[in-house]
Amino acid sequence: MKEESHGDRADRNFVELLQGARVAVTGVQVLFAFLLTVPFSPGFTRIDRADQWLYYAALVSAALASIWYIAPTAQHRVLFRQGRKETLVRRSNRYGLAGALALAVSMTTATMFVIDHLFDAALAGVTAGVLALLALWTWFGQPALTRSDQPPDGVAEPSSGGADDPRA
């Protein structure tokens, strides 16, 4: 197989990052739009102080997720043809991780806000806790374990020295 250049690899990595962000951005936009309409509903004025803070956390974390998921595209426009693709890829990866964390916070607090309104604080807390743990595990914990089991991208696996190994 032909080796790809650093520039080709950076281009491919950036396209892959943007593809992943496209999926998340749609969800963030829908959640953010919903959260922006909530205060204008008739019953919103009757929520207690704890629910106001839950709403605040959900809204602000949705805004942060939007900013972090959109940042790579905006920065790509500003840095277009400046030879900074590898820097942009590394930065975009960090923004994607931050965006995912903010999205997890927003989803968890928004769900807690609604369940607390419909049922009670105990069920809301348990549900939010389960959702937070599930998001943290599936989005961060499990991939971190997989990452620690494998060599970094582009590094050859250790040779077993067997007859079928082309590196032997």
TrEMBL record:
Swiss-Prot/TrEMBL keywords: Membrane, Transmembrane, Transmembrane helix
Region (Disordered), start-end ranges: 147-168
One Pfam family cited in the UniProt record for this chain: DUF6328
Record flagged with keyword Transmembrane helix: yes
Transmembrane segments: 21-41, 53-74, 95-115, 121-140
Protein name: Uncharacterized protein
Source organism (scientific name): Nonomuraea diastatica
